[in-house]
Amino acid sequence: MTTQILKDTASVLQSRGYTAAVFETGKDACEYLNSKIDGQTAGIGGSSTIDKIGIYERLLTHNTVFWHWKQDADLARKEAMTTDVYLTSVNAIARTGEMISIDGVGNRLSSMLFGHRKIYFVIGRNKLTDTCEQAVWRARNIAAPRRARELNRKTPCAAHCDKCYDCKSPDRICRGMVTLWEPMFGMEAEVLLVNEDLGL
Ligand code: SF4
Known about the structure:
This protein is α/β, with parallel strands linked by helices.
């Protein structure tokens, strides 16, 4: 993918009220976040992207950080709900600016909507689609099955990893979906588009 496509998407996001910029690598995005978040409380949503860029370990040295992937899960989820800042990715983003996310527990989705002074989205180029409809399709048929397989869920998508079967399994990880059209009132939102494949 060309950097120009990501830059065009950043412009679309800016027109929707986000702060947005393109980073060539996850390492660059990590350095930027580490320089911006200092002496704050920070929560992190379940995100392979955030894990991959290594920002958790960096922030820990000069912030109070809560992440259920690295700490006591129940406690960290609750503490992360009201932190100054929140970091996460999304399951897909359209070039027209809509961001799509699916969740099972709901902590990540709720933090996209309320509870923080500022939210940072880190999004790899692999999550970019042309349209909102394609972004929904990607979230449901690519990201969710891959995550279900990672978690060893007893779902048809985890077994075959080819599409969403809209299953009725008790193990279903897709319990809710959020479309963000614009930043929510009262919460700053910054999007870091990364010209690398990151996350599911
Ligand atoms: S609804 Fe079920 S089959 Fe579809 S992606 Fe989610 S867990 Fe998999």
